[in-house]
Write a structure and sequence with these properties.
22% helix; alpha+beta; three-stranded antiparallel beta sheet; 64 residues
Protein backbone atom coordinates (compact mmCIF):
# COMPACT_ATOMS: atom_id res chain seq x y z
CA UNK A 1 0.00 0.00 0.00
CA UNK A 2 1.24 3.48 -0.79
CA UNK A 3 1.21 6.21 1.88
CA UNK A 4 -0.81 8.41 -0.49
CA UNK A 5 -3.51 5.74 -0.78
CA UNK A 6 -3.79 5.49 3.00
CA UNK A 7 -3.89 9.27 3.40
CA UNK A 8 -6.57 9.52 0.73
CA UNK A 9 -8.69 6.88 2.47
CA UNK A 10 -8.28 8.58 5.86
CA UNK A 11 -8.97 12.07 4.48
CA UNK A 12 -12.71 11.38 4.45
CA UNK A 13 -12.74 11.20 8.25
CA UNK A 14 -12.54 13.93 10.87
CA UNK A 15 -9.03 14.54 12.24
CA UNK A 16 -10.24 13.79 15.79
CA UNK A 17 -12.04 10.52 14.94
CA UNK A 18 -10.75 7.40 16.70
CA UNK A 19 -8.95 4.75 14.67
CA UNK A 20 -9.51 1.14 15.74
CA UNK A 21 -7.16 -1.54 14.40
CA UNK A 22 -7.91 -5.23 13.92
CA UNK A 23 -6.05 -8.16 12.44
CA UNK A 24 -7.46 -11.36 11.02
CA UNK A 25 -6.43 -14.53 12.87
CA UNK A 26 -8.00 -17.90 12.12
CA UNK A 27 -10.95 -16.24 10.34
CA UNK A 28 -11.66 -14.06 13.39
CA UNK A 29 -11.04 -10.33 13.79
CA UNK A 30 -8.85 -9.57 16.81
CA UNK A 31 -8.36 -6.08 18.25
CA UNK A 32 -4.83 -4.75 18.24
CA UNK A 33 -2.95 -1.52 18.82
CA UNK A 34 -0.34 0.34 16.86
CA UNK A 35 3.02 -0.47 18.43
CA UNK A 36 5.28 1.57 16.16
CA UNK A 37 5.72 3.33 12.83
CA UNK A 38 9.25 3.30 11.51
CA UNK A 39 11.12 4.29 8.41
CA UNK A 40 12.61 0.95 7.39
CA UNK A 41 15.39 2.93 5.70
CA UNK A 42 15.61 0.87 2.56
CA UNK A 43 14.41 1.28 -0.99
CA UNK A 44 12.82 -1.37 -3.13
CA UNK A 45 13.79 -2.11 -6.74
CA UNK A 46 11.62 0.80 -7.92
CA UNK A 47 13.32 3.30 -5.59
CA UNK A 48 10.47 3.64 -3.10
CA UNK A 49 11.30 3.87 0.62
CA UNK A 50 9.45 1.49 2.91
CA UNK A 51 7.63 2.54 6.07
CA UNK A 52 6.67 -0.24 8.46
CA UNK A 53 3.69 -0.30 10.80
CA UNK A 54 3.95 -2.76 13.67
CA UNK A 55 0.78 -3.85 15.43
CA UNK A 56 0.51 -5.63 18.76
CA UNK A 57 -2.17 -8.11 19.77
CA UNK A 58 -4.03 -6.55 22.70
CA UNK A 59 -4.62 -10.05 24.11
CA UNK A 60 -0.85 -10.46 24.58
CA UNK A 61 -0.92 -7.70 27.18
CA UNK A 62 -3.70 -9.45 29.10
CA UNK A 63 -1.89 -12.81 29.03
CA UNK A 64 1.34 -11.43 30.51
Amino acid sequence: MKVGTLLEELSQFDYDDNLVLYFLKNDELKPCKLESIIDANYEDDEGYTHIELTIQDIQEEVDV
